[in-house]
Amino acid sequence: MNNEGKSKLKQYILIATYIIVLSFILLNLSALNSGLGKTLSILSPFTTAIGIAFVFNLPMKLFENKVFNFLDNQKSPTAKKLKRPLSILATIITIFGLLITLIVFVIPQLVESVSTLVDSVPGYMRSFEHLINQYVNSTELLKIISDKLLLAWKDILQVGGQLLGNSLNGILNVTIGITSGVVNFILSLVLAIYMLASKETLLLQLKKFIYAFSKRSFADRIMEIGNIANVTFASFITGQCIEAVIIGFLCFIGMTILALPYALLISVIIGVTALIPIFGAFIGIIPSAFIIMIISPIQAMIFVIFIIVLQQFEGAFIYPKVVGGSIGLSAIWVMLAMLVGGSLFGFLGMLLGIPTFGVIYKLISRSTTNKLKSKDISFK
């Protein structure tokens, strides 16, 4: 068999292999999806740890470069080695300290609001009873209701039993879910601390692996994409935090001007929920409006209108400038990234769509620039 025949035979074998593999995937799609789901579930603590380590790395670098940098000048090797552990400890204390402070600050206000609501319930009931008495005879109404209940007592008992069983099952499932979530979070946190403590070693090992089992040009491309992704996602997280602070501060100023109650508490809630891109402040409206409604329904309505206006202003001007500018995207690309990411992957796609699109945008821009240079074409 000549070389041409051997080449065609290899092509036919390769095509047949692709067809067999594709057929196997299509015929066993449900089994593959189930296996993929189980694999992702097993790896979830590890993937969560990567996310925690990435976020914690931002303040950790700040502590290393600005707070504990004096340890680099120490003669003792032991003192120099303390720089990373102290930075990790300071990062954990800072982040969890902020969370605990927020919880301690918000919970008493919520308890007070619920207590106020409970105290107001008797007055609401009396008003409702007075309204009913104006239009119907309460004795006749109660008699009709009691007769209907007596006729339907079997159905009521059956539905009640089903609700009780579902409630017990739901409580059990929630308890198991919470316990599993806490265990996975603790495991992820431990893994994240280990990743932060030895991030240079882990990155070097990954780099060696990529260069060892791939072509040099492909490995260089992977390193380039990794660097762009690291810078883009870090800039996105930083910009998102800055944007949350700005929206919380503007909320506090607006509520103070409008003389709305719990201005500081609600501004903190709006600022925290604003960490979710674009629609975060809308999520914060629900508990905030409930707190204000207990004091005054009219003020709650004013608050909702104010937040909607503030959200429109934030989405049109603040967010594209702060977050979009930090990752090199204009306002239209930020909105497009959110719409595409949200439609394809839901809430997670909405969160990660903007930095992912930022990476793609930079790669396409670089490729376009290089192509134009190779063709000696320039645009003013």
From TrEMBL:
A Pfam family matched in the record: AI-2E_transport
Signal among keywords: no
Subcellular location: Cell membrane
Keywords, in A-Z order: Cell membrane, Membrane, Transmembrane, Transmembrane helix, Transport
Topology of this chain in the membrane: Multi-pass membrane protein
Membrane-spanning parts: 12-30, 42-63, 84-107, 171-197, 231-256, 262-283, 290-311, 331-364
GO biological process, one term: transmembrane transport
Keyword Membrane found: yes
Annotated GO CC locations: plasma membrane
Record-stated family: Belongs to the autoinducer-2 exporter (AI-2E) (TC 2.A.86) family.
The protein's name: Predicted PurR-regulated permease PerM
Species: Clostridium gasigenes
